[in-house]
């Protein structure tokens, strides 16, 4: 995870050099939170101007704001409470303390994304600026973990969320992984990001990774769906890579 952390720090520095600020979408899960811990521990972390990083989340568990299950709480404990973030740039999805249903929280999150996009659009002075603001701000990097069932964010196989084509954010019910109520960015929203980084470790993810890289249908294998507009990176350990289709493995790769 130190290697992913080093890469993320470098990416944020590069993006800040280019745009003055950077926007990252965080993930929960073992590798997602482990990576944030590794960023906090990295001697290179101060190279990033953390006050100019916009933080969003790919998904959130719809529970109370102090619940240890919250991806945002875990991210604060791992990283955000250790770096000088600008609170107005930290965009946590709503909790069950503030909203009655995950759908209401999803609508609020989508509205805040739209507002960020409109603010960005108003500030954009370039000649090639589109006439209408988009419904999402520019996203530089989306981090995504993958569950053993191949879910990403809170988009689970065969459920409504992974089939969503129009909305940017959905409320999720009946998540097979507890807690059952969640909020998630949709695949079309994720795929507006410049870069999508799939961060995966462990033998229990090998089947999901293998199917995703073999090009399975995202409805059955959500991990197959994410594509960054500039690039899609799979940052995985050897165990998670053990069932990658042979034709995708470089002949000169170690052990081949
Ligand atoms: O519930 C979730 O699970 C996935 C994967 O988590 P992992 O512990 O199996 O790595 C995570 O990406 C997602 O953000 C989270 O809400």
TrEMBL record:
Sections of the chain in a coiled coil: none
Stored InterPro entries: 6-phosphogluconolactonase_DevB, 6PGL, Glc/Gal-6P_isomerase, NagB/RpiA_transferase-like
Catalyzed reaction equations: 6-phospho-D-glucono-1,5-lactone + H2O = 6-phospho-D-gluconate + H(+)
Pathway as given in its UniProt record: Carbohydrate degradation; pentose phosphate pathway; D-ribulose 5-phosphate from D-glucose 6-phosphate (oxidative stage): step 2/3
SUPFAM superfamilies: NagB/RpiA/CoA transferase-like
Chain's role: Hydrolysis of 6-phosphogluconolactone to 6-phosphogluconate.
Similarity comment text for this entry: Belongs to the glucosamine/galactosamine-6-phosphate isomerase family. 6-phosphogluconolactonase subfamily.
UniProt name for this protein: 6-phosphogluconolactonase
Organism of origin: Arthrobacter liuii
């Amino acid at each position: 995870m130190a290697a992913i952390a080093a890469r993320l720090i470098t990416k944020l520095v590069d993006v800040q050099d280019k745009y003055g600020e950077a926007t990252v979408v965080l993930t929960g899960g073992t590798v997602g939170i482990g990576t944030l811990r590794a960023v906090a521990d990295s001697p290179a972390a101060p190279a990033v101007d953390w006050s100019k990083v916009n933080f969003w989340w790919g998904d959130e568990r719809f529970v109370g704001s102090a619940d240890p299950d919250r991806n945002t709480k875990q991210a604060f404990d791992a990283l955000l409470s250790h770096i000088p973030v600008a609170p107005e740039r930290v965009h946590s999805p709503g909790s069950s303390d503030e909203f009655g249903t995950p759908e209401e929280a999803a609508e609020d999150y989508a509205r805040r994304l739209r507002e960020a996009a409109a603010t960005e659009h108003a500030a954009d002075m370039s000649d090639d600026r589109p006439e209408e603001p988009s419904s999402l701000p520019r996203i530089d990097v989306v981090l995504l973990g993958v569950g053993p069932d191949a879910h990403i964010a809170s988009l689970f196989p065969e459920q409504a969320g992974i089939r969503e084509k129009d909305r940017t954010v959905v409320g999720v019910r009946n998540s097979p992984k507890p807690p059952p109520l969640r909020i998630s960015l949709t695949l079309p929203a994720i795929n507006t990001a410049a870069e999508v980084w799939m961060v995966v470790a462990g033998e229990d993810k090998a089947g999901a990774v293998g199917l995703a890289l073999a090009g399975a249908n995202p409805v059955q294998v959500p991990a197959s769906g994410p594509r960054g507009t500039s690039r899609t990176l799979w940052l995985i350990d050897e165990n998670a890579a053990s069932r990658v289709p042979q034709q995708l493995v470089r002949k000169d790769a170690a052990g081949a």
